[in-house]
Amino acid sequence: MTTLTREYFVELDCQDVLADYRDQFDLPEGHIYLNGNSLGVLPKAAKARAREVVEQEWGQGLIRSWNSADWIHLPRRVGDKIAGLIGAAPGEVVVADSTSVNLFKLASAAVKLRPGRGKILSEPGNFPTDLYILQGLEKFHDGRVRLNTVHRDEILDAIDEDTALVVLTHVHYKSGAMFDMKAITNRAHEKGALVLWDLSHSTGAVPVALNEVDADFAIGCGYKYLNGGPGAPGFLFVAQRHQAQLQQPLSGWFGHANSFAMRDDYEPAPGIERTLCGTTPVIGASLLEVGVDIMASADMQQIREKSLKMGELFIELVGQRLDEYGFGLASSKDPAVRGSQVSLTHEQGFAIMQALIARNIIGDFRAPDILRFGFTPLYVRYVDLWDCIEALAEIMASGEWDKPGFRKLTAVT
Ligand SMILES: *Cc1c(COP(=O)(O)O)cnc(C)c1O
């Protein structure tokens, strides 16, 4: 294996077909941001759009903007754009609520589509909110549906005739491990079960082809790889074939067939809009649209290629520069089953990450011992990876991580 040099990384940036996208983002000077998997960065255009939504559409247009600025169609308009990023058709995706709430709506609806089956299947160590929401659903049904978690390698075999729904996160938030969406969806359908995919770490990060794999349901996040801004609304997907029968429990007025008829009785909208509940978070959805537009203008294959190259180089650098410091690799070396992140393990992971962040190199820490580095090819440069590892090597060699200030736990890690 040849020794890598900083010059090589600079050269890769010169040849990078995605390099110009970086200019569309407002990254603070002197920062290396490897946390776009948790909160994406601010698109420059979002600043202008925020002013416009607040000052013009809200400030001047007031209530008229529901029509004149087309606020009423935001869930569907932005949803159709996201559909293009995940291999879904127009009319199968809406932007609404949070990922957690969308999971509750769709998991409840899915279980109703499989009466008589008592099992929801997931994996231990799935993203906490996914398990918590499913535990809530279990309680809500007084145990008539049970959540059963089995190790990811045993999921295929655990899907049986009693399984109503399989709920999995496509790319694992900690390790970046990626499920074979097609294999699991096929097995579930063979057994008569449905599948709900959480795409929070997939959308905008890896190619997803929901209709190609015959997916049933999906949910995902707006503020991670889509760069929608803090607390941006989430999205949900319901395959066309399930929409007419779908009954979701949060039957609010935005999901009504005719919201402004103001009738006493609920009648679900004919299509995907029946998954809506209440008033759209207009400002958040408008800013999300800016991030989605940038993502939609980029080539997902090129994004994936750069992301994989980054992952491979990062792992190689860890081997070359950090070998003696006790780091482990929590992500697979096989790029085919890895999302757009590489996670390392270290006993002192929290303090080490704090020392890195103090140098404006931002990744994050996930308990108990995971240091996460997310690769967002539209604004991260190859040379950033070199500089990150260089800084880590310095932090370890000098013992810089061992300052008392870096050991103090913060409310959000
Ligand atoms: C980030 C994330 C969520 C977030 O859910 P919210 O309701 O937006 O807080 C859910 N699931 C997964 C897998 C995530 O990574």
TrEMBL record:
Enzyme Commission numbers on file: 3.7.1.3
GO molecular function: kynureninase activity
Reaction catalyzed: 3-hydroxy-L-kynurenine + H2O = 3-hydroxyanthranilate + L-alanine + H(+); L-kynurenine + H2O = anthranilate + L-alanine + H(+)
Modified residues (N6-(pyridoxal phosphate)lysine): 224
Signal peptide span: none
Enzyme class label: hydrolase
Keyword terms of this UniProt record: Hydrolase, Pyridine nucleotide biosynthesis, Pyridoxal phosphate
InterPro entries, alphabetized: Kynureninase, PyrdxlP-dep_Trfase, PyrdxlP-dep_Trfase_major, PyrdxlP-dep_Trfase_small
Cofactor(s) essential for the protein: pyridoxal 5'-phosphate
Binding site for pyridoxal 5'-phosphate: 99-100, 127-130, 169, 198, 201, 223, 253, 279
Annotated pathway: Amino-acid degradation; L-kynurenine degradation; L-alanine and anthranilate from L-kynurenine: step 1/1; Cofactor biosynthesis; NAD(+) biosynthesis; quinolinate from L-kynurenine: step 2/3
Pfam families reported in the protein's UniProt record: KYNU_C
Protein role: Catalyzes the cleavage of L-kynurenine (L-Kyn) and L-3-hydroxykynurenine (L-3OHKyn) into anthranilic acid (AA) and 3-hydroxyanthranilic acid (3-OHAA), respectively.
Complex formation: Homodimer.
Family: Belongs to the kynureninase family.
Name this polypeptide is given: Kynureninase
Organism encoding this protein: Marinobacterium aestuariivivens
